[in-house]
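Students often ask what a holo structure prediction actually looks like on paper. The answer is less mysterious than it sounds. You provide the chain, you provide the ligand, and the output is a string of discrete structure tokens encoding the 3D arrangement of the protein together with coenzyme A.
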Amino acid sequence: MAEQTVRTKNVGLRGITVADTKISYIDGERGVLIYRGYRIEDLALRSTFPETAYLLLHEFLPSPEELQAFEAKLREFRALPGFVIEAMKAWPRGAHPMDALQASIPLLAMDDPDLGDESREANVTMALRLIARLPAVVGAWHRIRQGLDVLPPDDALSHAGNFLWQVLGKKPDEETARIMDVCLILHADHTFNASTFACREVVSTRAHMYAGVAAGVGALSGELHGGANARVMEMLQKIDRDGVTDIAAWVRDRLDRKERIMGMGHAVYKTLDPRARILKELAFQLGEKTGQTKWPEMTAAIEEAAMAELEKRGKKGIQPNVDFYSASVYHILGFPGDLMTCIFAVSRIAGWCAHIIEEKFAEAQGKPALYRPKAEYVGDYCGRMDCEYVPPEKRGRD
Ligand code: COA
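The corresponding structure tokens follow.
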């Protein structure tokens, strides 16, 4: 059968459906996000991150026994192999945490006894190791770069609580650990976003799960994707440092300079991102608890001014996305700006692994296929494709 050509160049594959998925669903017009049939609002209110990760990986919510076993495995896998910590100690202290995280993924692969076993069961176990260990990697690198000892995991703490402990070196109270837990639920999956697509594309070559995840971490690092939360915090801190009092004027000025308001707008949502609504509440809750409402208040003022100004300029539907208020939440929790995208990865690893498993065992989409889009060759050299090879010593530039 002749290959069908569909032309959608330079629009980032917008509007092109490339696979079926049973994992999550977004209605960008109505602001709906669903993980395997469950609304994000319900999961954020009533589930926990381990339970949500189980749901994403296994398609259904666990029984109490299944959840207990899943959490026990997560605890068992938390500790990092010694050679990973030793390798990190040799890395330049100034390395960005996302680079350190990405560099650690193949090292974790080398330690995984299931690597090479391409059964579904082995992939699920690899996913559990990744979910358990990414928080420990972020914590280890943050401590090492400050010249501090790496902290051992604490089995008495929840997944989110232990993450806070291993990174920040302080055991959180229940409310704080729960806020972290909800943040992890909210970021855990989001259909075919850039990093998830990167994961799926890589494993469509039959590469292993860790190769896919390394690609996902790289894709997430960009400021148009996961890197936006760090940029939101930079924006807030600059406003604070500069003593800006007229936020509306600040917004107008930024838009006049054709700069974007970080944390607003979304490729899919043309209304309020449902996660942003929950994160806004969490930011104010945490702000009140710690006496730091200044950050969510400033964010809310930007939201109001930017929406009004963008609307005036004929740009409708540009509203806060997941990164807008998460920046305040993470800052108040004590995370430095350059760790914020790592937090996203610590959560999204659950979705990445679920998608990798779906891609590899794609009952939902029939036979898995190697992704291979086309590009139109628009090179314009020597009449398109007739360049004559000239040896180096005879080459001139005219
Ligand atoms: N601030 C100001 N203007 C924005 C904007 C923002 N946050 N987001 C989009 N726009 C404007 C663009 O400048 C563009 O205007 P133009 O047509 O005059 O050039 C128009 O809206 C469409 O933008 P485009 O980038 O083509 O739309 P998109 O749907 O692909 O945008 C994002 C999605 C996320 C890339 C974009 O909204 C953005 O850059 N947001 C800021 C970064 C961010 O928060 N990323 C995290 C996403 S979860």
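The two ends are 46 Å apart (CA to CA).
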